[in-house]
Predict the structure.
Amino acid sequence: MRNVTRILAALAFASLGFAACGDSDDEEVDLGDFSGSTELYALAPQIAGASSGEYNTYLVLTDRLDGQEVSLQKSLELPGRALIAGPDGGGVLFLAGGDAPTLTRYDLVDGTLKAGPSVNFASRGVQSIGEYAGQFVFVSETKAYFFDGTTAQVIVWNPKEMTVTGALSFEEFVMPEVTLSLSAAPITVGKKVVMFPGWRTSAGIPSRAGVIVVDTETDEITTAEDDRCGYVRDGIVGPDGKIYMATEAVGAARFRLVPESAAAPCMLRYDLEAGSFDADYYWDLTELFEGAIAGSLIRGPNDEAFLRVLDESLTTIDETTTMRSLASAPAWRWARVTLEDVPKVTLLDHAPAGGSVLLTSFGGKTYIPVMGETHSSLVEMTSEGPGEAVVHVQGRLFSWVKVK
């Protein structure tokens, strides 16, 4: 598989007129000379092809985030919906091919990315790596996790040696003929990583919420679940040290379209120390917003909490509307929410956008992508909500890395 990855990379270089320098163990990716740059960021937008379901991904670098448009003229083109991930400022990124369970490491050497070894997760039953870069969690130079919903396990791997070292199962969360999806934004609390699963089918959203907790020192995995609402895939640590969780916009959209197929979107609370959900804490999000549909609990740079609220005057809902199209419609407004026994919400005067939000932090700041039909913008989150766009790029931006 490593050779296949390199062949694909070499073909991509040739198709774009870029050089693949050195031997097979030292390929350079010619994405520009950044040897004099103090910072470096990698973006991996995805662009739809001419055929339905066809995508290409473009790996591009930039050394500044000042609101500029990043050109794809000098980029590495890859077939499919590839993802990139990596530790914050670690001088390395990892490229997942999308259609294969393979990761390839690219090291930053003298301002140039050089392809290194690959690791294949097929031995653990993984068939492809998709959905979100947030499913990769980097603990140290020699330990990382990949949370995989399709096989209901956490793959433990060594980013330095590029080897698989173990796997942790959460098979108790498998439901027959139900898709098990995982959050794009897990959280780390001390030495523990907390991941939020969600379940969905074409017919609806099961009323099931859960948490997956991995102790990074012992690799011990624990789980807990609740049955009061579903697709609870977003979480934030509250001022009381407990984890507040809410239905993501897809689940909220399903409830709006077919109420009998999903529970009302809600907010729950989980006690990490006790390892259980708070049975006395439950808030129907529609009640907080006088009947409006809400979801997607989003954290700010200092654990401020925000929700998205659907403004139906900004979109059309008819028999052709799906839960994904409604969740992605640019009709979701922003609201601040206090994380306490009785939450308070305040609508904010920010431009509406899609309700489903990817979230990541690097360089001490938190960012979200805002996706349009042909372009995406990376927006910095502030304590007051979304701030200015720091970069614009063609395509749909699902993953990015601060390389240095």
Notes: The chain has two domains: 1-177, 185-357. DSSP finds four helices and 34 strands in the chain. The radius of gyration is 21 Å.
